[in-house]
Recover the amino acids of this structure.
């Protein structure tokens, strides 16, 4: 993993890296525990996408490489541990697009990701009984 920091953070993840772990490490290196994932392109394999049906995620796995068309989400702490929440749109070899909540993804070749750090303690995740999801909350 390589990063460049301006006001935003540019992250290059290499083949075989976990997308979730790479984003968490980049945020740690940037000294933040609150960030938005602005965009991401590249390729992924060993992908798991979910759809929230109101009670649970319906998960579907895709092992073959797919083109990463769009990536967005957030990074925050959940009960003291890093939490990455991502949504992705990906295309297979026939140009069919699928997307949803990204539960797992391994970089295939390279991923180029842009992060916007918000410093430390700007927001965190907390479980909501109402939604049954770990919701992002502003903490200051």
């Amino acid at each position: 993993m390589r990063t460049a920091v301006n006001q935003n953070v540019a992250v290059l993840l290499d083949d075989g890296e976990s997308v979730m772990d790479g984003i968490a490490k980049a945020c740690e290196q940037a000294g933040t525990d609150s960030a938005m994932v602005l965009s991401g392109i590249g390729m992924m394999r060993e992908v798991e996408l979910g759809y929230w049906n109101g009670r649970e995620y319906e998960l579907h796995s895709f092992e073959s490489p797919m083109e990463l068309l769009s990536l967005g989400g957030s990074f925050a702490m959940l009960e003291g541990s890093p939490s990455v929440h991502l949504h992705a749109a990906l295309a297979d070899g026939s140009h069919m697009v699928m997307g949803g909540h990204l539960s797992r993804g391994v970089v295939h070749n390279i991923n180029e990701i842009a992060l916007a750090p918000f410093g430390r303690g700007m927001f965190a995740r907390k479980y909501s009984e109402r939604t049954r999801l770990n919701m992002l909350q502003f903490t200051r």
